[in-house]
């Protein structure tokens, strides 16, 4: 977050990740390679029931960034869909109608509720869609999505505003709703080592159908390909429709997950 137009820092507001974490984002390539090497292990995750899943890319990314996630979920038995809107140049208001049409199209074609996986800004879109049409949405998974607290606390805020034509301060009512409780089950997956988004902006309020999962040392650009993240996504989507239970951090990637109580500590 930039503290203000004059550059003065408000001590009560969150800051974006520092330069060291931002430069360390290059490790995302190693996370992708780790998933490729561990693919036989990843395929032991619970299988899908064939319901549709819509993958929403992050800011400046395209469907290509979510291709590994979609392929993995397809192999597990889900009907994985791309968003088909080109590169994500931002704009919650600008993209809202197209996103709603895409969700409605998938829902109508399948006759089933759609799970949403949103990476970074894509997760903000996913929350907005769930608020708009909970009868069409089955589950929401966010990967490093800055939807809560001070959402300016990212290293992409100024670029987002320049390219989208929208200021983060605009649409306060919509932002407040997106930061609140969703009418469908939701999981936020994040990392304290995120070099783009302050991890505190990714925390939802835990409830009987909402949880946070922290993955140790994951990068922001690697969240969609990190093996521990892929496993957690598969586990969450495998829950029967209408049911929810907390993520079991045991299993082949147990060492990668922080205990749940750590999500509320600073």
Description:
This is Alpha/beta hydrolase. This protein is of the alpha/beta class. It has one domain: Rossmann fold, CATH 3.40.50. 33% of the residues lie in helices and 12% in strands. It has helices spanning 19-23, 28-37, 39-42, 67-76, 92-110, 121-132, 157-164, 172-179, 227-237, and strands spanning 52-56, 79-81, 114-119, 137-143, 186-190, 210-214. It has a six-stranded parallel β-sheet, sandwiched between helices. α5 (92-110) packs across α6 and α6 crosses α8.
Provide the low-confidence segments as ranges: 1-9
CATH architecture: 3-Layer(aba) Sandwich
Instruction: Count the DSSP helices.
Output: 9
Taken from the alpha-carbon principal axes, the silhouette is globular
Mean pLDDT: 93
Count of strand segments: 6
- Main structural class: alpha/beta
Tell me the fraction of residues in β-strands, as a range: 5-15%
Separation, N- and C-terminal Cα atoms: 17 Å
Number of domains: 1
CATH domain class name:
Alpha Beta
